[in-house]
User: Fold this.
Amino acid sequence: MKRTELVRQIRQKKSFLCVGLDTDLEKIPEHFLDYSDPIFEFNKCVIDATAAYTVAYKPNLAFYEAYGLEGWESLQRTMDYLNEKYPQIFTIADAKRGDIGNTSSRYAEAFFGRMDFDAVTVAPYMGEDSVRPFLEYEGKWVILLALTSNKGSLDFQTQMISDEGGPTPLYERVIRRSMEWGTPSNLMYVVGATREEYLTHIREIAPEHFLLVPGVGAQGGSMEKVVQGAGNKELGLLVNSSRGIIYAGQGKDFQRDVENAARLMQAEMSSYL
Amino acid sequence: MKRTELVRQIRQKKSFLCVGLDTDLEKIPEHFLDYSDPIFEFNKCVIDATAAYTVAYKPNLAFYEAYGLEGWESLQRTMDYLNEKYPQIFTIADAKRGDIGNTSSRYAEAFFGRMDFDAVTVAPYMGEDSVRPFLEYEGKWVILLALTSNKGSLDFQTQMISDEGGPTPLYERVIRRSMEWGTPSNLMYVVGATREEYLTHIREIAPEHFLLVPGVGAQGGSMEKVVQGAGNKELGLLVNSSRGIIYAGQGKDFQRDVENAARLMQAEMSSYL
Assistant:
């Protein structure tokens, strides 16, 4: 998907909501377990309930891989459903892949060529040649880990490294170096909402790139602070919510609660658009 | 698999060879394409031809994911075959995963709980809580990326960071920090053979941990230098070869060439054991 289409979607829906499909058989309403593919049936209901308020869906690959072959079938069905029924909605494989060049090419083939995701999350540790193969697909996006929302982000990402222009945190070097590999039209960054103090700084380094922001809600980040700290003239944000939306309800009428949770977030977002 | 069993295998076989199963339909002998599962049938032949000389197999996940559902079926069959016929051989999911804690737990479930790999490669960028869930499985191993064999390893891994004891390259901080999370019995490091100048240094930092060393052969590293630079009293190395072994032959009798390639590497290795 092109950047202009994504920006248009955000304006039309007055939303920058990304719904994370972290689907867990132990957390979905019990009646889904009667289906032959409970994960897909649940995803379908969540998607239908939230599509009006949502500009992106982000299946978290680990949750599908944990169910083996059946999990991959559920993921493929979910992607087929999204690409057929909601082709205008942006899709993100939250896979955090990254390997030497010839291997990253195969991951790109898996997520872009085969499953037709619009974007994939990529880990930067292995450097340029591990990221470039993903950037070679026309109309597809890399979402590179910069500063994540977990405690462990302090172990390495915020460590100061000696750079030409003086000491720089690792995440900043990751952003600055990778801006030489991709453009605001094919490269975004993951920046956790729980790192508010860093959001403004990152927006200064990368004024035009989209930021994918997890951690609003369940992990404690504030939407207002995210927009104030990191919004740009096109907004330039995708704010993700997973558990807070998809597990908003239980029982047969859970879809109403899921829809309400998405509508509430969209309503808050609309005030910034 | 316990460390003592792995060490015993290495002594018995006089080998520290890991064969990388980077199976690519465009590179395997043509006659396999007549099978319903060419990837598994090829892997089976490679495994049978090399098992006498090999202490570990390392399927590269990207090559399986690139074929979608069928790829995952081939991988599952390969693992079932290995675990049934060669249970004493160490198995590594070369997956380079790593995510926030609850997500890493699901990846651990996928590779340890479901597929019964002995080890999984993990990327360190997200820090401690992204690695710990993999370390919680009894008898299973994390192989953490430290210093990889590709050009992009210079982008971040070798950058100097300001640490308490003075400037330290990032890969060294990764090793030192992670040695607080795991032990030589459940944690290894990936160190590329193409980084010979660093091998001795890494062995000083981590005298007891196993190192998984890619890059000997196809990528230009020398076995002798690897052993001299990074061998310890138990040897403490797994040296990986992928393309150099599995694509050593073509045609109907390719198995003979594959076996010879593995035997040659084992013969060189035996002189160090």
Notes: The two ends of chain A are 21 Å apart (CA to CA). The longest helix of chain A spans residues 68-85.
